[in-house]
Amino acid sequence: MTEYLPQSPQDEDRMVDSAFREVLQAYLASNHRKKVEIIERAYRFAKEAHKGVRRRSGEPYILHPIAVAKIVISELGLGSTSICAALLHDVVEDTEYTREDIEAVFGAKIADIVEGLTKISGGILGAQSSVQAENFRKLLLSMSADIRVILIKMADRLHNMRTLWSMRPEKQYKIAGETLYVYAPLAHRLGLFKIKMELEDLAFKYEHPQKYAWIMERLKETSDKREKIVEEFVRPVREKLDAAGFKYEIKARVKSAYSIFNKMETKKVPFEEIYDLYAVRVIFENDDDAMEKIKCWQIYTFFTDGHVVHPDRLRDWTSIPKANGYRALHLTAMGPEGKWIEVQIRSRKMDDIAELGYAAHWKYKTGVHEEETELDSWMNTIKDILANPEPNAIDFLETIKLNLLSSEIYVFTPKGDLMTLPAGSTVLDLAFAIHSEVGLHCMAGKINHKLVPLAHVLESGDQAEIITSASQTPKQEWLQACHTARAQNKIRGALRKAMRQQQAEGQAENAAKAASPAAEPAPKRSLMQKLLRNPFSSKRRNEEPTREPVDRSKVFILHPDARHPNYRTDSCCSPIPGDDVLGFVDDDENVVLHKVHCDKAMMLKTTFGSRLVATAWGETPEKFLVSISIDGLDRQGILEEITNTISQKLGMNIRGLSIEAQDEVFHCDLTLQVDSAETVETVCDALKKIKDVKFAQRTS
Ligand code: MN
What we know:
By secondary structure, this protein is of the alpha+beta class.
């Protein structure tokens, strides 16, 4: 993070030229054919086109396309066509030059790619839902025409994220949000794992600056110890590798800050348990494909000779690669201090494929037609969806987004039948996949003979059974408890139907009383659409007059006075002091708060980034209402134990309680008065200690 200091025009010119020289050097050092002339021509063309223009940081604009070209060659390993397109990628968008001008100088191929990049810049998620979906559709269309478009777009996004510090805070939120929402999943799907990791880490850094700093600090504190353990572990292996004449490198792998954060948040695991996982990667140079596999196993023996090896954790993907093309040999061996260390053995080529995924295919293109990869078949799915788009723009976007992430998992029914579901599917998704009626009456799941709630995420190999009840009906919250478009569509349909029925009953009642005319038609649109149409609706919107404009350049201090807070909350997530929150300024200059991870906040920040205001919690003198849901096995006296734990052991005030039991399962909703988010954690921890309570979590 360095400010750009103004320089003399001559110095600036020298700096720009030397940045471009680095691109050329990286290109010349690669295996590509040496088409230097056209790259130099693209550089001169772009430099002339962006002449006199500067980035927000103050540096000459041309440094951005040069940096993108550098990523394209150094990190993606693409060739001259892509390098030229990267250098020219903002020319049509930002200058008076047209596609025709580019085609006249560089030919149709490069012009096509630049045009593809032009169409999708300006943000995938525009100001309106229809524009978002349309932009996304264009992105996918240009991608299916030439995948280099999306690869260069990734490089562009990566450079923008690396230089995000120079943007205004609300822009940072918008760009970071879009990165997590669209680009990171896309990078994952394309197999660009390294880039995906960096995008996530950078987005995380801007979304949760304190948490990011905290994790980085912990990682720094513990790095010496980690290095020591790994070094001791690999020393004897190094000696054997050297003696056998291997050219290799050994890397100690550290989990990314974002993945640590995610694990801590979703699995509620303390930092100590996560950072304590060690992994080592051996990458060896190899010029004989026939020897690749044998060498992997030879290195394997170097580890097994001196170490205790975990028998269940040998993974051989050298002969049969994973669906995404990943090949490697994995083992887990005992290191110093009795710690298990995972070892990944890969040739350089295997490593390139693992880090670069689809982009590595260019590096190793042999001319032989390879069989259809998982990515190809996924691209065909996307083409199908594009050919038959759903009428609702946002549903379309969601469907595609789900498809981006999906790889398949397999679960077994009690009878041993195999069901295939997208990865990330929950009990509820499975229920709907079995049959709509099963889904609509689903109460809970029994996974590997253990009771789990509807939102439980399934894993490959699970044995899964669905518990239903005739009295069960779909709830609004179910939309958050499922992953597949199929389940969501069915739930939405059922909710609409229930609403119409209620309305009809209400109207009949009204008619009977000969009272007021028929009510407004109820919103039939999907939840997402409603949110977009009226993004700042809040509970008490009409009760207060328009306020003074909120100064968005300053941090807005939240005063959570229970009677007159200086902000509002929305029904979707009801944040309380201590939560990570985002503030949005509505039309009446009220600050509306959302939890950072609330779905609505995700949409708002990508779509209405300019309305964001940075917030911080002020003093918290009052108490707040929160809801906690508890799931477990039903038995006599359990309700009493729950209430005792809260009112007697913890001395807290229960404000609302409802319990519902079905067969062996119960579900309980509690409303409590608390002072902070930490207190809620304490309560949940205490509840989980009660026998037969399987889940206790905050729901609002
Ligand atoms: Mn750009």
